[in-house]
TrEMBL record:
Keyword field: Lyase, Metal-binding, Zinc
Keyword Lyase applies: yes
Gene Ontology MF terms: carbonate dehydratase activity; zinc ion binding
Keyword Repeat: no
PANTHER family, per database record: CARBONIC ANHYDRASE, CARBONIC ANHYDRASE 2
Protein name, UniProt field: Carbonic anhydrase
Substrates-to-products reaction catalysed: hydrogencarbonate + H(+) = CO2 + H2O
Amino acid sequence: MPQETTQHSMTPNEAWAKLRDGNLRFVNDETEHPNQDSARRQSLVAGQEPFAVIFGCSDSRLAAEIIFDVGLGDMFVVRTAGHVIDLASIGSLEFAVDELNVPLIVILGHNSCGAVTGAINSRNSGVMPKGFVRDLVEHIAPSVQAAERQGITDVNGTVVEHVKQTTDRLVELSTVLSKAISEGRTAVAGVAYHLDDGKAQLVSSLGLDVA
């Protein structure tokens, strides 16, 4: 069965519209579960053409293909707790944009995030967690401080700020991503997901033509 469109031909705005529409179906219990059959599986053996790359939190409640109602081969997904940036995640995003020509990067955070909560608690108590969880907290701490400067101290408000800070940080760290955005080859959508109603709210963007 032929694909409805060549995914590489999508613009960043078209890619975001596709995700937005899929999330609306998910919220309204009208999911179509596209591209999840054996025919789709076989069509992807020779290669992939995802139309979006998701850099999201590892939380089990944040399954990207489900909340955006897409299927196999539609999204290239990179996840770390608290969507914390490291060299591997940056490299994965650069691969998606430069090698797979993905037109949209989505930074996906969510309310009640445990990693962000841990960073706030450490900030308030002065006590850092043990092991490599400390590394997660240290990476999120600048977002906690940025939120505080705006008078934001609650977890969900800090999550939104962390999504925005992650967007800016990616562009600062990666000349590959910065160049792709400036050339209009890709864009970034910062999204905060609501666990209770399933809505994926756009909270920031770079290179998207949205109201």
